[in-house]
Amino acid sequence: MRNFVSLLTLHLALCTVLSAQWLEATIPVGDGPWALVYNSTDNKVYCTNLYDSNVSVIDKYNEVIATVPAGGSPRALVYNPTNNKVYCANGGSHTVTVINGRTDSVIRTITVGALPNALCYNPTNNKVYCANEGRSVTVIDGATDSVIKTIVFPIQSIPCAFVYNPLNNKVYCADETRSSVIVIDGATDSVITTIPVGLRPRVLAYNFLDNKVYCANTYSNNVMAIDGESDTIIATIPVGSRPTAFAYNFTNNKVYCVNTNGNTVTVIDGATDSVIKTITVGEHPWGLIYNSLNNKVYCSNDASNTVTVIDG
Length: 312
Known about the structure:
Layout: H1 2-22, E1 23-26, E2 33-39, E3 44-49, E4 54-58, E5 64-69, E6 74-80, E7 85-90, E8 95-100, E9 106-111, E10 116-122, E11 127-132, E12 136-141, E13 147-152, E14 159-165, E15 170-175, E16 180-185, E17 191-196, E18 201-207, E19 212-217, E20 222-227, E21 233-238, E22 243-249, E23 254-259, E24 264-269, E25 275-280, E26 285-291, E27 296-301, E28 306-311
Antiparallel strand pairs: 1-28, 2-3, 3-4, 4-5, 6-7, 7-8, 8-9, 10-11, 11-12, 12-13, 14-15, 15-16, 16-17, 18-19, 19-20, 20-21, 22-23, 23-24, 24-25, 26-27, 27-28
């Protein structure tokens, strides 16, 4: 028994050391850090602060260099590399704030549907998609920032997450209340099909190396892998409690999944769809983003007002 306790103590100590080796920095930001996005043109990370209604801008040295005012309750971000603009969905004001990616100044504010909560960029057609909890998706022209179209979903739908498939020019949208993923044609902005998934799908990710879409189901505590060509489910992956965010590392073909209730990040092999590792992060982690220039993953921790940096 004594030998078992000693081995267990040694194992826990080793796990602590190994976990610490993955972590690089903790960055203080605003009140209630939520969503993250990466500006590949200027090598900056943007983080929304839910409770003080602004966006923190983090440079390559892991320092906050600007604070940009947004609308009420900023909940989502997306980057437009074609025009070097960052879009911020504001759930409290039913708007999208457009930020200049070079100067970090506000360009304009766009009125969208009720309670916007997710954004997606279509580089093929230079369009931005905004999911509104009021069962609609607003399509925005990425050059002019004007509204092109509003896609209305069925009654009781709550669109809440996006991912874009560039190989097939398709937009995938998670419908939380109907436990499904809706597939939209990126050229015509019309619905192609609906895929049943697990309970309460809340986040999506795309693996372009294998043309797969990942869907995290918060009530099922699992991740569904969807074939990007046939739009059929090909794997079910168990993760931690309440998965709520993804980041895809295309350098190593790994998928990172935040488990909010467990204060951890699950790492999934993108080729085999198997779990590689579980990393302990800050309290109540919520957002993830991957920086391809330095091969690092940034995780925002809502309860501790910090951002954890993970070596990819």
